[in-house]
Automatic annotation (TrEMBL):
This is ACB domain-containing protein. Belongs to the ACBP family. It holds the Pfam family ACBP4_C. Residues 12-106 form the ACB domain. Its main location: cytoplasm. Keywords: Coiled coil, Cytoplasm, Kelch repeat, Lipid-binding, Phosphoprotein, Repeat, Transport. PROSITE patterns: ACB_2. The keyword Protein biosynthesis does not apply. It comes from the Eukaryota.
């Protein structure tokens, strides 16, 4: 797309004085009517307050009488800025003017030098804005054409403004495609993206069903792509084990202490449990973190939210295509997993949803999909009570979607892309997490990467302003395009506006609580006796305490925070001590296991010897039985022998008696015959 560059103009404070003179703050009484005629009443009041803060300082004048509605409105607007420093007031003045009239400088450039000199000595009446400032002006300005050095840009909304970002035109609250150099990554979706030191890192993803494991970096200062060459650690380090970099998609990429953590994700050969891989930016090496406790089952399409020093993991889809709604927390200091059994009614099992943290206490879950449908429900987990709730959403509630991306800017949660299995979602929505009011920032037309599933969205900054950066996605084709959006203060405040009836007394309040951000709350006065109140943290302006009580409350909160920090330090020390004891116990367990294995080996050897001895005993018993049998046979033979010998002896004696008898006249033969 065609890009243009806007002129940067003079530096501060000259730029402020030029803007003030252009807006009509030239010190004369008649100029105030010009201010109210150029701008809507709320913008005019805010410009007046910022000009007073920049040129005079903090509002120390008495509050006007209640019947002086205009003077009181101006006083409240100025007094609401508190102790904002002059330079910040100048910057906000110019920014609001640029949002309302982007081409103001080109119109006033012919007289900048004269304006700068005269504006320094200008003394403006504190209450000289015409009463026309409180007219109810709700119409939008006509289409404007903005001249640039290269070409023209047609503006169709009053909140669009051109600014300079590395040679490109960026429109407030509108997506634009910057001019990028270098070799971009291959088109993909379901990848991971994270910001570290003005660089957007993109890792992994899915392209045509093939999982990826490449790593690329986009320098957001020069808008140049580069591929990151890395290596995988082969030797284990303290707290880490060797890693094998497996291509994955549907994972989460989290920045942590100058490192990148890749959590979970779908792989070709999934492991049983979630793997946490770490990329060291200094050494450009990958490794796998060693964790303790019961790790969750492996999955992809989950949400991973960094809350303090812990990762909160919810839902996803496991390797068997089963949808999950379990909740786990990984403590990044002890690297210990903890499965949470939260109270209340949890979200239904889902994947490809988004999650965000608010006030370091609440985790919000939005959208996602099951096998049959997509969701647009909102669930909130209170990390203190560990209980789920499903609050009522208000405003322009987004349509059901899955595969979308989200990022928080202050208390505002921007949701981009996604789809409902039929088409991609074209609108960019924002949720005020304090009031739970939705609004639409902008809408894209046609099948573009921003209306895709599986895109990534990160938050960066340029020249002190927030910038949303999207990459990739799939909506019928894979994308590797980069788009940026600069949210204006109007888009971040739009979701806070509610209408409240008031008496006929006319007032307007502009309350700026943070000098580094735009105005967080303002009241607009209408002829119908209504005001539009910007609600911050669900607290009415009427019910807020005085500043003295606020200071006391802050002191009390600081004391409580110090106590909590002390308790946290003790808990961390105790955790480290327990971790050391656990390591010692594991060492002892390892030694005992080795000893047990040795004893088992010895026992096996003894059992083998016993078996051999039993065999020998059985053989000896068999031989003994054989010897007993032989002994019996021998005894029998001996008895037989003895009997035979006795018989022979008897026969011998009988034979000798026959001879003598024959000699005596008794023939032996006759006796034998008789016998």
């Amino acid at each position: 797309m065609a890009m243009a560059r806007s002129s940067s103009g003079p530096a501060y404070p000259e730029r402020f004085y030029a803007a003030a003179a252009y807006a009509g703050f030239d010190g004369s009484h008649n100029s105030t009517s010009n201010v109210s005629s150029k701008f809507q009443n709320d913008t005019a009041l805010l410009l007046y307050a910022l000009y007073q803060q920049a040129t005079v300082g903090t509002c120390n004048v008495p509050k006007p009488s209640s019947w002086k509605a205009v003077e009181q409105s101006k006083w409240k607007s100025w007094q609401g800025l508190g102790n904002m420093v002059s330079t910040e007031a100048m910057r906000l003045f110019v920014k609001i003017l640029e949002e309302d009239d982007p081409s103001w400088y080109s119109r006033a450039s012919n007289s900048i030098s004269e304006i700068s000199e005269s504006a320094v000595d200008t003394q403006v009446n504190h209450y000289s804005i015409d009463e026309a400032i409180i007219k109810n002006e709700n119409s939008f300005p006509e289409t404007k054409t903005i001249s640039t050095e290269i070409g023209t840009l047609v503006e169709t909304q009053d909140k669009d403004v051109v600014s300079e970002v590395v040679g490109t035109v960026v429109v407030y609250d509108q997506w634009t495609e910057p001019s990028i150099t270098g070799q971009p990554p291959i088109a993909r979706y379901e990848h991971g993206a994270a910001i570290v030191q003005d660089k957007m890192y993109v890792y992994g993803g899915n392209h045509n069903g093939r999982y990826l494991n490449d790593l690329h970096a986009l320098d957001l200062r020069s808008w140049a792509w580069s591929k990151v060459n890395f290596k995988v650690e082969n030797e284990s380090q303290e707290g880490q084990s060797p890693a094998k970099l497996t291509p994955c998609a549907g994972h989460s990429l989290i920045p942590w202490e100058n490192k990148l953590l890749s959590v979970a994700g779908h792989t070709k050969d999934p492991s049983e449990t979630i793997q946490v891989k770490v990329f060291h930016l200094q050494s450009c090496t990958w490794s796998t973190l060693k964790t303790y406790g019961k790790a969750p089952v492996s999955r992809g399409g989950q949400s991973v939210t960094l809350v303090g020093t812990s990762l909160v993991i919810f839902g996803g889809q496991d390797a068997k295509k089963s949808l999950l709604n379990d909740l786990h927390i990984l403590d990044l200091e002890t690297m210990t997993w903890d499965e949470i059994d939260a109270g209340g009614v949890p979200p239904s099992p889902r994947s490809d949803h988004t999650a965000a943290v608010h006030a370091e206490r609440y985790v919000l879950i939005f959208g996602g999909g099951s096998h049959a449908t997509c969701f647009n429900d909102l669930h909130v987990l209170d990390l203190q009570t560990m209980e789920w709730t499903r609050p009522t959403q208000q405003g322009e509630i987004p349509t059901p979607r899955a595969g979308h991306a989200g990022v928080t800017v202050g208390e505002n949660w921007f949701i981009v892309g996604g789809g409902d299995n039929k088409s991609g979602v074209s609108e960019t929505a924002v949720l005020n997490m304090s009031t739970l009011v939705w609004s639409v920032v902008t809408t894209v037309q046609g099948r573009v990467p921003l209306a895709s599933e599986g895109l990534s969205l990160v938050l960066s900054s340029y020249n002190g302003e927030d910038v949303l950066v999207s990459f990739g996605g799939y909506n019928g084709r894979y994308s590797n395009e980069v788009n940026v959006l600069k949210p204006s203060h109007k888009s971040t405040l739009q979701s806070k506006i509610t209408e409240t009836p008031v008496p006929d007394i006319v007032s307007a309040v502009h309350n700026v609580t943070n000098p580094t951000r735009d105005v967080d709350s303002e009241l607009e006065v209408g002829q119908e006796g209504k005001i539009r109140e910007i609600v911050m943290d669900n607290v009415d302006q009427e019910s807020r305490k005085s500043r003295g009580e606020g200071t006391s409350l802050i002191a009390t909160l600081k004391a409580e925070r110090e106590e909590l920090d002390l308790s946290l330090g003790k808990e961390k020390l105790q955790t480290l001590h327990l971790k050391q004891e656990l390591a010692d116990a594991e060492t002892r367990n390892t030694d005992l296991y080795k000893e047990l294995q040795s004893v088992r080996g010895q026992l096996a050897a003894e059992q083998s010897r016993c078996f051999k001895l039993e065999v020998d005993v059985a053989e000896l018993r068999q031989k003994l039985q054989t010897m007993e049998t032989l002994q019996k046979e021998l005894e029998l033979l001996q008895r037989q022998k003895a009997a035979s010998e006795q018989a022979l002896d008897a026969n011998h004696r009988q034979g000798s008696g026959g001879v003598w008898g024959w000699l005596a006249g008794t023939p032996g033969g006759q006796k034998r015959d008789d016998a």
